[in-house]
Amino acid sequence: MLWKTTFMLLLLASGAASEGCLGSDSAGVAFTVTRETSIGNAQLSELSGLVKSQLFDEVYWAHNDSGDSPRVFALDREGRSLCPQFLKSCRTQEIGERDWPGQAIELAMNYDWEDVAILQGDLLIADIGNNGNARRDLGIYRVPEFNPEAVERTRALTFYPIRYPDQRKFPAERWEFDAEALFTDGAEVFLITKHRESGQISQFKRGAKLYRVPLRSSVEPNVLEWVAERDDLAVVTAADISPRGRYLAVLGYQTLWLFSRPEQPEAHWFSHLRGQLDLRPFGMGQVEAITFLDTSSLMVANEGGDRFRVDFVDAQPPEPARDD
Fold first, then answer.
1. Distance between CA atoms of 192 and 176, rounded to whole angstroms?
2. Model confidence over 196-245: pLDDT tens digits?
3. Sign of the torsion formed by the C-alpha atoms of 165, 172, 190 and 129
C-alpha cells in the first residue's frame, strides 16, 4: 500500500424523471478511497477490463484495450500476475520482474475489447468498442474460466455478434453506439453506452443508455434490447454488480455512480441512484476498469494499472436481493 487518503463524502443522489427514465431515490452514501499497489506487469499496459473470479479465490481477470493480442491476465489481490509455475516464462519472484504475457485466447481477436464479466462460470469478453460508431462486427466472446496457475492458453467457445436496434447508418447520425461497460445480473447480460458529439471522436457528451444483451445466436446478430437511459451519466467506461446483487457500480472518467437494485416490476437498474463520488480529487487518471471486492468495496483501476479501493456505507441499504 503506497498511501492512503480517507475522504468521507455524504452525497445526495437525485434525478428528475424524464421520458424513458424513472425518477431516482435520494439517499446518503459515505465513500472512503484508498490507493493501493499498482499492477506490476508491463505487458498489461492499457488496462480496460477487470472482474473478480467466481470460481477461484482472490483471482481477478483483466485485459488490455484495442489493438492488443487476444489474451487475458489473472491477478491476485495485490495486483500480481498469476501464471503456470511450470513455465520458464512465468517470472514470479519480484513484482518489478513480472513480464508474463498473459494467457492467450485462441479463436479470437482483440479489435476493441472494452470490458469483461462472468456468466455461469464463463468469461464474457466484450469486443464492443465503437469509437467511430461505424462497426458492424460488434460482439462478445465466451471463454470458460480456467485455473491461471495450471493453464497457459485456452480458446473462445463462442462469439455472439450483437447490434443496436436503433442504428441504421454506419457511422450513425447520432454517435450513441459505442460501449465500454458490460455486466451480468444472474442469467441476464447488460451493457451501457458511451456517447460522443456526432462526428467528433474526441468530444464526449452526457448521457448513457442501458441495453439488455440476449446471447442466443453465434451466427445471426443478437439485437440489443433497450431498457432505459439517463442524461446525468457521462463517459461510462465500466460497470459491475455487487456479490449479493444489491448494487450496480457504474464508472466514468470523473465519477463513480452507485445504483440500488430495482424493486418494482416497472423499475430497472437506472431507476434508483443511491450516491455518486467525484473521482477528480484522488488523481486517478483515466479509469476504465471496476469490480466489486465484496458487498461494500470496489477496486477501480486506470489504464496504467494504478489501483484504488473504494469502500462505501449506505445510510439506507436495500434489502438483500439474493442469499449468500
1. 10
2. 999 999 999 999 999 999 999 999 999 999 999 999 999 999 999 999 99
3. positive
User: Would you say domain 3-314 falls under CATH 2.120.10?
Assistant: yes
DSSP string, 186-212: TTEEEEEEE-B-TT-TT-B-EEEEEEE
Percent of residues in the chain assigned helix, strand, coil, to nearest 5: 0, 45, 55
pLDDT at 27: 57
C-alpha cell at 62: 483483466
Q: How far apart are CA 134 and CA 58, in angstroms?
A: 38
Residue 90 is predicted with a pLDDT of 82
Mention every residue, 6+ apart, whose C-beta is less than 8 A from residue 23.
Answer: 15, 16, 17, 271
What is the Cα gyration radius of the chain? 19
Checking phi first, is residue 217 left (phi over 0); if not, alpha (psi -120 to 50) or beta? beta
pLDDT digits (tens, 9 = 90+) for 71-128: 999 999 999 999 998 888 786 544 434 589 999 999 999 999 999 999 999 999 999 9
Number of Cβ within 10 Å of residue 213's Cβ equals 23
In degrees, to the nearest 5, what angle opens at C-alpha 22 toward C-alphas 277 and 243? Answer: 50
How far is Cα 214 from Cα 119, in angstroms, rounded to an integer? Answer: 12
What is the pTM assigned to this prediction?
A: 0.90
C-alpha cell at 194: 458511451
